[in-house]
Amino acid sequence: MSTRPRSQSHRIPGRGLIDRTKPLRFQFDGRSYEGFAGDTLASALLANGVRLMGRSFKYHRPRGVLTAGSEEPNALVTVLEDGQHTPNIRATMQELYAGLNARSQNRWPSLGFDAMAVNDYASPFLSAGFYYKTFMWPRAFWERLYEPVIRRAAGLGALSGVADTAVYEKAFAHCDLLVIGAGPSGLIAALSAGRAGADVILVEEDRRLGGRLLADQPLIDGKSGVAWAEGIAEELASLPNVRVMTRTTVTGAYDGGTYGALERVGLHLAPRAELPRECFWRITARRTVLSAGALERPIAHPDNDRPGVMLASGLRAYVARWGVNPGPVVVFSTNDSGLEAARALTRMGVEVAAYVDPRAVPVVEEFPVYAKAQVVGTQGRLGLKTAAIQHAGGISQVDARVLALAGGWNPSVHLACHMNGRPAWSEKIAGFVPVADMVPGMAAAGAASGVFSTAGCLADGLKAARAALDDLGIAAPDVPLPLAEDAPYAIAPLWAVDAGGRAWLDFANDVTTKDVALAAQEGFASVEHMKRYTTQGMAPDQGKSSNVGALAVLAEASGQSIPATGTTTFRPPFVPVSIAALGAGGRGEGFAPRRLLTSDAQSRAMGAPMIEAGLWYRPSYYPREGEADWRAACDREVQMVRKYVGITEVGTLGKIDVQGTDTARFLDFVYSNMMSTLKVGRARYGLMLREDGFVMDDGTCARMSDTHYVVTTTTAAAGLVMRHMEFAHQAFCANLNVRFTSVTETWAQFAIAGPRAAEVLATVCEAPELPFMGCAELEIGGIAGRIFRISFSGEMGYEVAVPTRYGADLFAHLVRAAEALGGGAYGMEALNVLRIEKGFLTHAELDGRVTAEDIGLGRMVSAKKDCIGKGASQRPELVAAGRAQLVGLLPVDPAHEISAGAHLYASDAKPLRENGQGYVTSVGPSPTLGQWIGLGFVVNGRKRHGEVLRLYDGLRGRDVPVQLVDPVFYDPEGGRMRG
Amino acid sequence: MVKLRATEPTPRLPLEIGAARLAAVDAGQVTSVAPYPGCDVTPVLASAGLAFPAPNSMAASGALRIVWAGREMAFLLGGPAPEGLEDLAALSDQSDGWVFVQLTGAAARDVLARVTPLDLRDAAMPVASAARTLINHMPALILHNAPQAYEIAVFRSMAATLVEELEAAMTAVAARAELTA
């Protein structure tokens, strides 16, 4: 085992865009290291001589960092913070901060010695698709053994199991021009549009602007590209119409110019209490420039995956931007970009031990050139030691710490393909390029469109900005084109070196050229099949560095050209997005608005557990001292209402002001029964049907004046009924003089129910003599309010309404008055029992599948007039015999409990679907009857009262006989409430 | 006989976090005005110095404000409806149905950008414009009263959620500002 590396042993003095005055201590796998401000975890580890950073997914092969960017497939680590940990963080994206604590993944017991590496020795049996051919026998072993073992072995990092309680954000932004990527093309495009006065948003994944200028550092207008970028950044920051968003990745392109973007707000710092970790943005742009650059490809050759093997572009970045001294480097390249990388490295003082190129390149360089050659193998399991170069003279072993691969560049076309477009193959650059208008309003520029020279990118960026400004109708300013290198890009692609041994394509999912060839051999020759069969491209990096290589190998194996073999499509997100960012603010009670009653604070203070229904929080019951559970409280509350008086807030029910000279006529149209005959000062129960004839909702309608009704609806149906009435008016009778306004929120309403209701009422108002179902306006507690003599409990009762701001105080007064008379507040449990005792219905019964006739209210569909749904309700199947009808249910044994949702069968029948006779919709323990009661629907139920059926609830293990009875269990004449 | 007392809908306000301030607003009497089909409310409103607002607009006259609040609907704020309006439009008292707050300060727009998908740029939502939109999942009415002042109204029952979610947005925006400070 190697000795612990000296602190920052691999730095080049004086080089890099890091701040050497700010050292930062960090930990990796329990060891302490030091880096500098400006480092990423990857660059700091390399500077400390650490090349081994992870173990591969399937074979647990030792791996190092392959790239310097967000496309990193190998160096995935877990970051530990604050009693929490986050897996699968790319070490190239994790900015260094003081105290950073990271850990490698997918290895046991340690990165240097991973017991699971035994998989690598079993590799001939673990090639692509192995699980389709094995683990078949014995059958029983699949669920018991194979699947659990495979599950444990699969995956990379592990979740902490601790809920993520950190802060995340979501936000929206709008602009005229969205520029994606702040390399040379993006910078000049943003500058141009910014100077023109357009609203510009420039989004850059890195922490600073510049893109490849930061790594390659070419000259622009005679000065360093880095300085040029800084100058542009300064000007952009000064323009009020330009918003620069760094550390932000555009993740997806959607309809209507909408883009998703993930911003790393706090991940580059130690956790701070109120600072969001991430922000998920939705940006809407009229036009977009995709200046997202290009990603370099590796070359597939035997053992091309050792720690120390990386992309040439990544190496350049580590040297130039982060001042890392890699040690002796072998460069294996198929194109001029790789050659330029070797030259640049040499200029920066790096030892290039060999430049290997399959092309006939001239050998006159400051480093040894192996022309018409290729790398055929490497040595050094835990860190590269030598590279084997095959050339005309044979095979040479060259000592190297780093092998830099330059296999060519892939324009980043991903976002352009998000709306199902496919890019086009360009023979010239041996890569895919975007096709115009794949995303409406988006145009690619620079390397993203296959233009690779600095001068070319600058010109392309200006051109794209000009075109966008033109579309936007904004005059383009005169921005001079800066001078820069315009070197040609020549490439002779070498997709795979065939020299025995495994050549890696997809590092993240451990897919080799052999796997792809195997897929073709087994008949999975389409790229979509190859992808799923081998899992190439399906890892967190989504194949960014392997898609094209795999496609090329597949093309060769199936004897087709690359364009003919096609490409799989790209879908959002472009980079992994945490669920916490997508769902920011939506955890726990943040998921939906809480609608609180005016009595909410008092109910909670009285110890009532609250339940949520239709966003409203309502009290379940009001426990009193000595009551052991909900049942005790519920029983007491029901009896309290029936004997004395109870108070409950009913303001959640929808209330709609319907006004206008045609109101009565309109209500006759939407209600099944007559509402036009309702007298002023009276309320009436009504049914509303859907257009298909089924019951939509029931409610009470109160007539306040000739042209003013107040319609009430079930709590959860308030919006539904409002929409229904609006639709009916607009679609069927727009000429009717009627308007609808929701007043659910405007009134706080309370039920005063029980024989002593009038006494309670007298403490807050001088109530007029009201007949049953009468209503009136009157002063309550000195405030203009309303009173309705209606009852949902079946007892003498009133509902009183005051403007919402007085609700809390009114509730306090009513409860006090009730308690003085032996009563008090009651909750939803008791409310439910009371109404079941009376056979009153809720949406448990009116579930959208029942007709008026089914619930025994067929006569409420008036014969004297038409209404919405009447015609449809008379369709043969809805009036045929044999429909399920509302019944009451009484357990034969009074000790038995029954459950809603249970189904009903003949006493001697098996509880199977085909024997079903009906189902149970509501149940409750009735202290009035001394046993559980329920409501439900049974075939021909109304004719079967007295019959005993079998109630079966397989979930709760209930199997009890129940008798069918009239759904009104208590006071069937209604004398108590009409009294 | 008891005399009922009113309850404050947003007792936690005012809140000041970073460069944003959230305060309660007493909008006074609020009446929804929905002209009946074919009725012209212009003359009656003119007598109060107002006109029925075009979509997304609002106007003021003395203590009265009129705000577009949806399809063929306006809210009259700050006083009783002019006489005769009840014959031409459905009027409904909304004073207790909505809770009003005002978000002000240099960070107001940034805070609002966390909770509403609306385009808040000046060209799209200038001063004296209004919009029916969402604040997260709450139906809302937003009035752009001044460059750094937005009045926000949601259903009164959602007042607690409104304050909580705006407070969270204000806190997050302030935490970011601290980074660059």
TrEMBL record, chain A:
> What superkingdom heads the lineage?
Bacteria
**GCVT N-terminal domain residues:** 604-865
Concerning InterPro entries, the annotation shows:
2Fe-2S-bd_N, FAD/NAD-bd_sf, GcvT/YgfZ/DmdA, GcvT/YgfZ_C, GcvT_C, GCVT_N, Sarcosine_oxidase_asu, SoxA_A3
Q: One short Pfam family name for this protein?
A: GCV_T
UniProt keywords (A-Z) are: Oxidoreductase
BP-aspect Gene Ontology terms: tetrahydrofolate metabolic process
Example of a GO MF term: sarcosine oxidase activity
Domain SoxA A3: residue ranges? 501-585
Q: Where is the Aminomethyltransferase C-terminal domain?
A: 885-971
Q: Which GO terms describe its cellular component?
A: cytosol
Family, per the entry?
Answer: Belongs to the GcvT family.
Q: What is this protein called?
A: Sarcosine oxidase subunit alpha
